[in-house]
Amino acid sequence: MSFFSYARALYKAVFRRPLLIVPVFLSFCAGPVRETAPGPDLPAITPYDLTEALIPHPIDERKDIRVHLHFDAGIDEGLKLRIIAFLSQRQNTSGPLSPWPAVFSETEGPSFSHRLLFRPAEGGVAVTAFELVAGKEKELQSIQLSLAEPAKDDGGVHIEQSGRAVVVAHGYPDLADDSRKMLLALAERLGTGTLRITSPSRADVFLKENGALLPLGATPVDVQIRSGIREIVIRRQGQPEQRKSVRVPDGGERMLMAAWSDDSDPGSALIFTSPDGYRLALDGEVIGEAPVARPGVLAGVYELEIAEKSGEQDFRVVTVDRLQVSGGRRVDRFYPFEYHLAFRGASLKSALESGLWSYTSSDQRFYIADFDRPALSVRSGLSSIPIGAERLQLEAILPDQSASFGLYSEGDRFLIEPSADDIRLRLEIQGKVQVYTFKREQDRQIYIFADLDRTQGTLALRINGKSFYDGAFTVPSAVRLISIGSQAGTKPPEEILLRSGTHTGGMFFRAGRFFWYEFKSMSGSPLRLREDDQSKGDR
Questions:
Q1: What is the CATH number of domain 31-51+357-504?
Q2: What domain of life is recorded for the organism (predicted)?
């Protein structure tokens, strides 16, 4: 939802109904309803299926690196010129397994990719290497250099500075031999990272560069390689060849695991985003643009990076999550940056067929006969796949005679149970269930607004404008949205709207949505999260 939509909702509620401002504001600021009582455990659900930094474009156009040499004012002028002369004599090499060809300059400019900062230190010189990304410095490594007196037969060194010859006369201090090697090694590591490749069975690894395959050896492989997106080819006798694009970070390391179907208990991952098209990287390996189904993932904990396009060739990481993959099992995740679903017709059918939602029942026989008039059976319903957002805002419209609706995690959970006369909230926190109730207007829709912060471990929940809960809520890794039929009602939600990441709204947005609900209620207008109601189902 855009800013203009928020503003329009606020305008309609406040300026067209000015007498609402004071009571509505007081109600918005009031604390949670506290009519509580212990309750039984919430019903269990068993779903089943219906069926970094910048991530650059895979083609790395960089031909060399450009290094700015910055010397602190305390560095002796003669020593500075000797260091410049030493680095300028470095031999440039070609090939992705060799250091980048480098251009060193003391003159500052916008085109530098790295910086070496030289500062005086006790007994020598301290050097810190930085990567320059979008005008910001990222520290890579620091070393300490020692000095040596020049030899008696030192005739000085000749270099060119600003286009003219400069002679450093005999008598100035110079770097010690071991420090020269350290500085050279640091310079050669600029723009490179470590790539480690493993597999349960022996496999041959190749780097594809300019159409040619360069052998890296047999797994396990541990090589220093130029940073950026690199295409890796992995071959194992009797198995299909694997091609993987992996992002090697500058100054860091990346591990790549290859597995085949006959390896011991490989897992898999199915990852969705809304909207589609976010680029995904698993432990630094670019695995494609969502939605992505990834087979042959070894059991373990992986770092998942989700990046949105920030330019023609660049992607900016917007979410980082951790995935626990178990052997022989599939881990599903959904990251709804902005997602709307109308629970009827082609919208609901598409959500089920895509795998974003699934049926849940005790006997796995439940299905929806008429998607234009969907109804759930008692103790059966619908469940979303696990949602991995760290911050999630949920809006939902429940109809009259609604089924139960809630949010489940491996930790805490809640379930909203409407009936003809009241609304019950069953909240399970650390295994203890409390029940909150209040009267409802008959034959009216129910509006739910939930704000979940997984990082802080908190949940703020409003139902029909009243604060039902505002407190601790633990979500270890992911949550599911569920709708379960009951004796009181069997209709699924009319609509839900999910937002996460930068799409979540702050205090003024929440107040605007509250005013919107109050205005709609007093005017008797039906609640709609999207006026055009043009849902495409899953995204």
A1: 2.60.120.560
A2: Bacteria
